Predict the structure.
Amino acid sequence: MRIIVGISGASGVVMGYEILKALRTADVETHLVVTEAAAQTLSFETDLRMEDLTSLASFTHDCRNMAASIASGSFLTDGMIVMPCSMKTLAGIVSGYADNLLLRAADVCLKEGRKLVLVPRETPLSLVHLRNLKTAAESGCAIVPPMLTFYGGSDTVEKQITHIVGKVLSQFKIPFEGGFHWTGREG
Ligand SMILES: Cc1cc2nc3c(=O)[nH]c(=O)nc-3n(C[C@H](O)[C@H](O)[C@H](O)COP(=O)(O)O)c2cc1C
């Protein structure tokens, strides 16, 4: 499989790091694009360096390079994950305002009918955000917000992130050993 990973400047850039790790473990070819704002949040929120992200990706593209492979529909992919997805990037996606490579790659996924999974992060959500999320869903995006989960023993931040990673991977039917799968309870 070949999947584009976009990391934008919402809080939770570490979730982008974790999805890259999981995709690497699953032997997926990844094409990483990180926005300028995400580079900032990386330094504000984590001890990670940009190389920690890029070393996990099969290929990394400069967000300003509109001539990158992933800017074209003729470059075949299985889709894209935007994790985390800022409200600004969400707005760009739903309006087709593709002024950086992440937005262009997402635009390509939409026009080619490829899977586009958004992990939007903001709280509280304004009416504008909610309208944009609705438009994204109507356009075919899968909306997988990083919601807290309390079943399956997700009692640490790390386990909460792992749960979201599993939810995102399941959008592509990629098995994830670290994820919790509900198997039912007898009534
Ligand atoms: C520490 C920090 C945390 C932020 N968290 C969020 C967030 O959770 N959601 C959001 O939509 N924007 C958040 N922002 C604002 C975005 O970074 C900003 O809107 C930026 O322009 C997004 O650009 P991008 O979508 O191109 O990455 C945050 C900014 C900073 C500095």
